[in-house]
Amino acid sequence: MAINHKLRPYQIEVGGAVLDSVLNRKGLTFSVEMARQGGKNELSAQLEVLLLTLFMGTGGNLVKCSPTFKPQTVVSMMRLKERLNDAGYARFWIPELGYMVSLGQAREMFFSADQSSHVVGATAHVLLEVDESQDVSHEKYSKEFKPMGAATNVTTVHYGTTWDDSTLLEEVKQTNLELERRDGIKRHFHFDWQEVAKYNPHYLRYVEGERERLGESHPLFQTQYCLKPIHGGGGFLSPQQRAQIEGAHGRRHLPEAGKVYVAGIDLAGEAEEGEDAMLRALKPRQDSTVVTIGELDFSTYNEIIQQPRVNIVEHYWSTGKPHASLYPQLVDVLKNVWRCRRVVVDSTGVGAGVAGFLTKALGKAVVVPFPFTQQSKSRLGFNLLAAINSGRVKMYAADGSEEYQEFWFELERAKSTFRPSQTMNFYVDPHQGHDDFLMSLALLIEAAEYRPRSAKGRLGGDK
Question: Would the pTM of this model clear 0.90, i.e. be above it?
Fold first, then answer.
């Protein structure tokens, strides 16, 4: 099937402005915010083909940098080669040294903007492009890439989607908006998902599905599709989001026949020798092991949200017990009482031993060790927000228990901070309390990725 690579009006608008700056040696710097999958990479590749063609006789370098060499820089090179072939240059372009592509006397050089890369020395004569500019550090760009075009007054383009108000892309954007107010020359281009969807009905359906799956307030939807930057951090869950988690079902201590159960386990650090069950009262900030049991409701499946609803039905909360003394209880609860189909357990640090023990007792098909890293915890937080926003997780009704009270205590005090490369952290300030129930809840959502063998639709269990 032939793929249509024809540029859309909003892409042509950007391309025309860049081309005018290059050909008339204006040396402008542009910022282009385009919704995810809106076609910024296609625009970049076709612009590169055009400029290589125009300068193939006289010569000159184009320089493009991306946050990483693999996969981003490699993908950019592949796309350029494909478009050169489409333009009839298959026998004429030449690859050089694994990071350059030449056409006649013109050349494009591709670099990684990773902090560990060394790129000083290249000169950009025709164009300097910064892909995913929101993920490139200010220092790296200022010290190593911006000087490449200083002697040539090169035209520069920063492409990306927004993130927070501290990124390189946001800095360039704000500078451009101020310059536009002064001289009226358009330097910043902003095309959110609604603009892209005007020309692509398939994209419209896809993004509407993402909005339903993630929720419109989700940080990833707001930044990648609405192009609205996040301002700092703050509370992890709004009052509206906490209200969405409230359920009407009762807490249960035993499973119901035919139902599917999963669990998320956040493990405490090993207790000191001699500490007893009264530890929480004596040391309020000592963390605990929390097991959250969820019942999966597959009747919520549809074409867009292909995940079950998770009804929290039980909590197990233990403070100050060594892991060795918890093993028999964990195995009994997960295997014999609830017959959990999937268990996601914190395997960070000393948790690796518990995860290994549970894997032997319950089987690799059931237990999923989850090591916490910046990236994995960020993904866990985003997935939890998506489940909450789409109404896919519900807490049992108030029962007056300490577990119920601690659960809501932690959710009300949970905070979030946003980091570079579109990652986030979520936690409870140690001076205000714990986040054991919060992390166990997030791991429960990960456990809800369980897929039964049965068909879609209302499901009582897989046999």
Answer: no
Q: Residue 435 in contact with residue 414, Cβ under 8 Å?
A: yes
Cβ-in-10-Å burial (0-12, 13-18, 19+) of 221 comes to buried
The two tokens of residue 362 are 């319950």
* Domain 9-210 of CATH type 3.30.70.2190: no
Query: What single-letter amino acid sits at 354?
Result: V
* Sheet arrangement for strand 423-428: 234-235, 414-419, 423-428
Output the CATH code of domain 236-447: 3.30.420.240
The pLDDT tens digits along the chain (463 residues) read 456 689 999 999 999 999 999 999 999 999 999 999 999 999 999 999 999 999 999 999 999 999 999 999 999 999 999 999 999 999 999 999 999 999 999 999 999 999 888 887 899 999 999 999 999 999 999 999 999 999 999 999 999 999 988 899 999 999 999 999 999 999 999 999 999 999 999 999 999 999 998 999 899 999 999 999 987 667 899 999 999 999 999 999 999 999 999 999 999 875 434 434 443 443 344 578 999 999 999 887 666 667 899 999 999 999 878 878 888 999 999 999 999 999 999 999 888 999 999 999 999 999 999 999 999 999 999 999 999 999 999 999 999 999 999 999 999 999 999 887 889 999 999 989 999 999 999 999 999 988 776 544 444 444 3
Give the residue extent of every domain in the chain. Answer: 9-210, 236-447
